[in-house]
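W.,

You were right to be curious about this one. When I first looked at the sequence I had no strong expectations either way, so I just let the prediction run and decided to look at it fresh. Below is the sequence, 415 residues in total, followed by the output.
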Amino acid sequence: MLDDSVLRQVRTILEPGDFYIGQHQSIFRAMCELADDGHAVDLITLTSVLVPDSADPDGRGRTMAYLNDLSAQPWASNVSSYARIVYEKSVSRKLIASLSDGVRGAYELPSDVAIETAQYLLADLHASQAKGEAADMRSVSEVALAGRGETWTFGIEELDNWTGGGLCHGDYHVIAGYTSTGKTHLGISIAYAAACAGARVGYFSLEVSKRDLFWRLAGHVSGIDWRALMASTAPDSPRAEPRQRAIKQLVAMDNLWLFDRQRSVDQITVQTVAHDLDVAIVDYGQLVAATEKGERYDKNATAAERLQALAKQESVSVVCFSQVNNESARGGADHGGVIGAKGAGEWGSAATMFLQLYRDAWALDPQKQSEVTFSVMKNQVGPSGCSCTRYLDLSTSRFRRRWDDPDAKSPVWGG
């Protein structure tokens, strides 16, 4: 029980709250505190922490005797197995408590509030179960040699190349830009491209309604202004036929879901699990963070950490769009927006790839106004410091390779 290497091993599996008996929680917490402070963990140091009052010799004696009995148990050689038993029992107790709270809510709360409360309780329990574990070099090498696994395209060739093939399970990508940079247009393009590649995609929009997202996708598919498609209800309209084709194609996509009321990480987690998503696109992060507790930076950091945990725990590729304030973005030729985005480290610090978008939405030249620069600020799976340019058609959410290529056949123009 008191060997340092054994304690380190147990801490990868258990936390103090996982023990059922309060006395065992206190003992394990004291052991962890001693180890963190660099002190030896033995009967004397543990007793001094648990019973600091030297005026209670009887209490100290009883505590030391109890610790001595625990340390005499022949369990150290099977410490991982015993720790996992404690952990599994802890999970069972938490699950029972969460389900009991959900049942009480069903009796006492309105149905919509009761459902959301139950979703929150289960999602919170699921998120709390992530445990880091040590791994030997053999098992690590097996993972490394296996490669990144199945990937799905971003819809833009350079992004696929920079990430070792595209979107992959467990990745957490952050794409930052100020207002009107083209974040939602890029999200639509990524969602459609990944879905066409076979991924199960969920688009979580916290600004745009599902109705508008559908018509933007229809414009993306047909290459026709989405607003014109939405308004072309007359059967003799010249856009009636392409409108119906786009609608038919989208309706047939049973692997793409649109959400516009999921405003917390818990709700996003529930839908991700329920639909077994491969790719979850969050547009955008600061609105998700508004549901978290704490100061602005802490809210963003918490939401970012939880989205990254969602990617790892559910083996889903999370693409999170992040807002950069306009003041930092109006940097002109020196791309001050890049500096502003990098400063928003609470979103990008844990990202697999941190991508900055820059577009001069105030340019008078239409060609310059449509030009979008993609710059890789950070990348764990490929090169950083590289960039590419596309030309955004705002009416169809298509990204052109060339400004003078208005008749591109594929919606994925960057491919």
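Here's what jumped out at me. The chain is about 50% helix and 15% strand. And, maybe more interesting for your project: The longest strand covers residues 371-379.

Coffee later to discuss?

I.
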